[in-house]
């Protein structure tokens, strides 16, 4: 499960770099696909799977409590998306795109920080105390 989390961290870093230098790639993609049913399904499934992986792998990380909390937030977000429905998720995505477009470089830095945190948390050996 560690490699999956590291790959997710790398993807977050790449998304962050994209948001800093060419945010149109991500924002245009989301804007043009927000009404597709597969976006709704992927938003739920990816959060559920990554949340479960983070929760189950937390003990193998350098910061188990933080990883468990983040994993729980992923699962909670997936459940919220599930119960809010596709139409409300589309409206949410439209709102987020409008609000965050001017702050794309900052959002990119946050994405890079989270990706780096995931890679760091699951790299190297954990010393038993």
Automatic annotation (TrEMBL):
<feature type="transmembrane region" description="Helical">
    <location>
        <begin position="103"/>
        <end position="122"/>
    </location>
</feature>
<keyword id="KW-0472">Membrane</keyword>
<feature type="transmembrane region" description="Helical">
    <location>
        <begin position="65"/>
        <end position="83"/>
    </location>
</feature>
<keyword id="KW-0812">Transmembrane</keyword>
<feature type="transmembrane region" description="Helical">
    <location>
        <begin position="38"/>
        <end position="58"/>
    </location>
</feature>
<protein>
    <submittedName>
        <fullName>Uncharacterized protein</fullName>
    </submittedName>
</protein>
<keyword id="KW-1133">Transmembrane helix</keyword>
<feature type="transmembrane region" description="Helical">
    <location>
        <begin position="7"/>
        <end position="26"/>
    </location>
</feature>
């Amino acid at each position: 499960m560690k490699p999956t989390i590291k790959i997710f961290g790398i993807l977050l870093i790449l998304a962050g770099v994209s948001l800093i230098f060419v945010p149109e790639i991500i924002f245009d993609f989301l804007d043009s696909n927000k009404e597709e049913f597969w976006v709704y399904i992927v938003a739920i499934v990816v959060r559920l799977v990554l949340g479960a992986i983070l929760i189950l792998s937390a003990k193998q990380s350098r910061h188990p409590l933080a990883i468990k909390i983040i994993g729980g937030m992923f699962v909670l977000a997936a459940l919220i998306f599930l119960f809010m429905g596709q139409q409300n998720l589309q409206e949410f995505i439209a709102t987020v795109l409008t609000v965050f477009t001017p702050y794309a470089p900052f959002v990119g830095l946050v994405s890079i920080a989270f990706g780096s945190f995931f890679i760091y948390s699951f790299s190297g050996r954990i010393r038993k105390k």
